[in-house]
Amino acid sequence: MTETLDTSSLVPAPPKQRLWLLAEAAEKSPALIQGLAALGYGVTTETLEPDQALVNIPLVVCDELGIKSLLEQLQHRMIYQQAILIEFRQPDPAVEALWGSLDDGVMGGVSTSQVQWQEGLRFVGKVSTANSGGFASIRTRNIEPPLNLGQWQGTVLQVQGDGQRYKWILRDDSGWDSLAYCRSFDTDTTLPSLIRTSFREMVATRRARTVPDASPLNPTQLYSMQLMLSKFEYDGELNPAFNAGSFGLTVQSLGVYRQGPKPVVVILQGTEDLSQPLAEAGLTGVIPQGQEFAVIGANKNLPPEVNPAAINTIFEILG
User: Fold this and answer.
1) pTM to 2 decimals?
2) Tens digits of per-residue pLDDT, 223-265?
3) CA pair distance 144, 159, nearest whole angstrom
4) Same-domain status, 233 and 287
5) Residues 98, 30 share a domain
């Protein structure tokens, strides 16, 4: 019996919102984790590289020390809201039934691939350039009704690869040989990779030839998904990371993302008036004010996605 996929279940599910806890306040993170759990917030104290994006972090907690360098950082960091669409590590039989192999045998080649389910969706096989071949892929059958991801800017793949360069392919038409919108991505042999791909930046192709006058991908009607390992990039260019032989790529999850608002800066203590620096940075902050808190900076009210109870809990535990 063929499993029927209920596409209404493919609604992006946002993970827990986290706050970013900096500097001396980090030593009290266990108490804060416990205090915020009931409000649906997590806590991270990790050190982020200056160019690393903030993902699902609506609050940044710090003291006055170093606040101005932090404000400069937040002005230039990318801020993303991210959600999980398919968690491949917890496979759904209907999702499993979507995927099948599509290799260069359709052109006389001898490459082979298969789908396995082991700690995620495993795309494995052997690729060969014999008989003018050179690609292997797995592709979904058409999704009906098509996915509507029009409220998002792109996809996020969490993968573990083998050092090869693969292609992520989406189609917005139900035709089997319709335009394929591609993004090539490299993988690491040791560390998982997060592949964030804007819908608008995916390259329209037909049989590995670019179609420059094509319209951008329409994310409101996505009919199929595909993963490919190919000897070729686009327009006859060779894949610089391609190696014939055995390969393996594990996709742990498929998510979606969009650019999010700047986080609210929770300032634990200090005497300096930071209203102007916050406003100049386009940021909103909160400071303790008696038994309450005051909102300062670019806005005089908290954004709707921030729970005031979380602010109170932060000041109660860290103040």
Assistant:
1) 0.90
2) 999 999 999 999 999 999 999 999 999 999 999 999 999 999 9
3) 26
4) no
5) no
